[in-house]
């Protein structure tokens, strides 16, 4: 057993639920994090943001619930099958987690269209790459292109027995392609091909419109009181 030091953040506005205050417990930056250790911590509800590993630690709220898919049990619904058909000509290229101007420009367009109220559209190139990449994790930037045009980027961590969907951003003009959904479907297929058991989807938050899409992937496993169900 390894003792992992945690540091609790200061209270701050919740990014999921308006009017709520959030806190998180971070693994101390002085602690040597590895992809293997993170592969274990994610099973206990931790996530990463850049090199930081954290879990929600809100005194008066437990609405952020870790979620994952068991890849072999997932079956696409009718809408997801239509999404796969719509994107049957979408090209995929797996790249290292390095800064590319085209990715950054697309990220800003996505933030301005979808999350302009969060101020994410004002992030610098350093903020962007610091948020999505990691110095210790095996991360890929997965490009999705339609008609030779960059359409979406999915940031995916490869863990010991799972894939973790870190973040996906896409061209707002291609909303009818449901590229966020397609990116998750692609990751499930990759997990099956690589014989990895799970695809982690981050936190599911009841009553949060941003997180509602996760409930469309069934059967969705949730973590409660240390147990997945």
Explain what the structure shows.
With 229 residues, this protein is an alpha+beta fold. The protein has a domain at 67-200: Aminopeptidase (3-Layer(aba) Sandwich), CATH 3.40.630.30. It is 23% helix and 32% strand. The strands form three sheets. An eight-stranded mixed beta sheet has the order 8-9-10-11-12-7-13-14. A four-stranded antiparallel beta sheet has the order 1-4-6-5. It has a two-stranded antiparallel ribbon with strand order 2-3. A hairpin with a 3-residue loop joins strand 10 (149-158) and strand 11. The protein is globular, with a radius of gyration of 17 Å.
CATH superfamily of the domain at 67-200: Gcn5-related N-acetyltransferase (GNAT)
Element-by-element helix/strand order: EEEEHEEEHEHHEEEHEEE
Q: Under the CATH scheme, which class of the domain at 67-200?
A: Alpha Beta
Strand order of the largest sheet: 8-9-10-11-12-7-13-14
Q: Briefly note the CATH topology name of the domain at 67-200.
A: Aminopeptidase
Shape: globular
Taken as a percent bin, the fraction of beta residues is: 25-35%
Strand pairing plus helix content: what structural class? alpha+beta
List low-pLDDT spans. Answer: none
- CA-CA gap between termini: 25 Å
Radius of gyration: 17 Å
């Amino acid at each position: 057993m390894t003792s992992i030091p945690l540091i609790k953040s200061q209270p701050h506005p919740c990014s999921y639920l308006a009017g709520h205050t959030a806190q998180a417990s971070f693994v101390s930056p002085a602690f040597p994090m590895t992809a293997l250790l993170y592969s274990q911590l994610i099973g206990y509800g931790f996530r990463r943001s850049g090199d930081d590993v954290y879990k929600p630690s809100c005194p008066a709220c437990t609405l952020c619930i870790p979620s994952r898919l068991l890849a072999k049990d997932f079956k696409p619904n009718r809408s997801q099958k239509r999404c796969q058909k719509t994107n049957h000509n979408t090209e995929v290229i797996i790249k290292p987690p390095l800064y590319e101007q085209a990715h950054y420009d697309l990220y800003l367009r996505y933030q301005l269209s979808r999350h302009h109220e969060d101020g994410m559209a004002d992030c610098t190139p350093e903020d962007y790459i610091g948020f999505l990449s990691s110095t210790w994790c095996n991360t890929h930037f997965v490009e999705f292109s339609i008609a030779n045009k960059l359409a979406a980027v999915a940031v995916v961590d490869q863990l010991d027995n799972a894939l973790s969907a870190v973040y996906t951003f896409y061209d707002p003009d291609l909303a009818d392609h449901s590229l966020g959904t397609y990116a998750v479907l692609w990751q499930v297929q990759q997990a099956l091909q690589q014989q990895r058991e799970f695809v982690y989807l981050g936190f599911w938050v009841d009553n949060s419109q941003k997180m509602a899409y996760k409930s469309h992937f069934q059967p969705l496993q949730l973590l409660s009181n240390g147990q997945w169900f």
